[in-house]
What we know:
The chain is α/β, with parallel strands linked by helices. The protein has helices spanning 2-32, 143-148, 167-174, 200-213, 226-237, 254-265, 269-279, 282-287, 322-326, 348-351, 353-366; strands spanning 40-43, 50-53, 65-68, 74-83, 90-96, 105-109, 133-135, 151-156, 180-182, 218-224, 242-248, 309-313, 335-339.
Amino acid sequence: xxxxxxxVLAGLTTAVVAGFGVASAMVARRVIAAGRxxxxxxxxxSSPITVRLDRxxxxxxxxxxxxxxxxxxxxxxxPVLGRETADGSVMRSVIAGRVPAGATRTRFTGAAVTPSDLxxxxxHLTTTPSGAWRFDGDSGTGGDSAARSGTWVVHTHGxxxxxxATLRSVQAVQRTGVxxxxxxxxxxxxERRSGADAADVARVVAAIDDAVALxxxxxxxxxxxxxxxxxxxxxxxxxxxxxxxxxxxxxxxLRETVRHAAAVAGVPRILVWSALGLLGSSVLARAAGVxxxxxxxxxxxxxxxxxxxxxxxxxxxxxxxxxxxxAVVSGSPSFELVEVAAAPHGLEWNVDPEAFDAAVRxxxxxx
Length: 367
């Protein structure tokens, strides 16, 4: 009887441990995944210069946005023109591109600046050895003297976004005359989304090294969301050249961000810590379906003491709440936080491009 009970207990223990391991792996995959694509419905419209969308938390926002379609085409839309009273839909103007015939759904994104807006033909982009996109500063705004100063900015996008999403900050920097590189996180630039990868920090470092090879004596890292944690981790590896950071909707600590999201979702904390530990092991991470160990400790180290840092964040961000960013302001005299109008995660530029550009320009001028 005792032996039978022991066998049963051992079996139950194995099942519990196995179940816990499966749950941890699921949480780990969720942490580093690009997330589910959220589509907006495209409704029939009688004009080729407008698009009608179902109304949701994003489609009715003021400002300029990007629409991404399943066939790979992109459309830039402008302000809301009106709302159909019958069905509550939203009509927006089409600024660039053409809505594919018969399209019924689209991904509504913040990627509303194109290479052509920066004076570059997308089909003939200049890339560096690491695969980063290169954009020169605007010589019409004092760019010659700024470029000679030896300052470059390296931009990095977040999870679920594409490198195109960084062109909003590239444009703000370009207008100050400073050149930029956009990090390639390992997927084609034409792809919309990329999950976390073990080599992400190394790719940001490679882009920084490319900037140095191009003549940079000072590099400013600029990270969006998860790209903020990557940028800070890369800056720690290149302290001799990185002289500042610009962070938008920033993930300042992977651990703290995941912990907060888990608390909101009601996920037990023990599962979160187990998942983060799993991600830090290359063997366990691969077993969980991750492409390699994610440097959790490096991505959770937070701000770099003494490094001049600008954060642009919105009180409307529910993905990475601005409270997490506010919490570090008082403890870091080199950290400046600019809050813009209420906007969902990563859409600070879209709802108020003037305030966004002014914050970047004034901070860079002060450097």
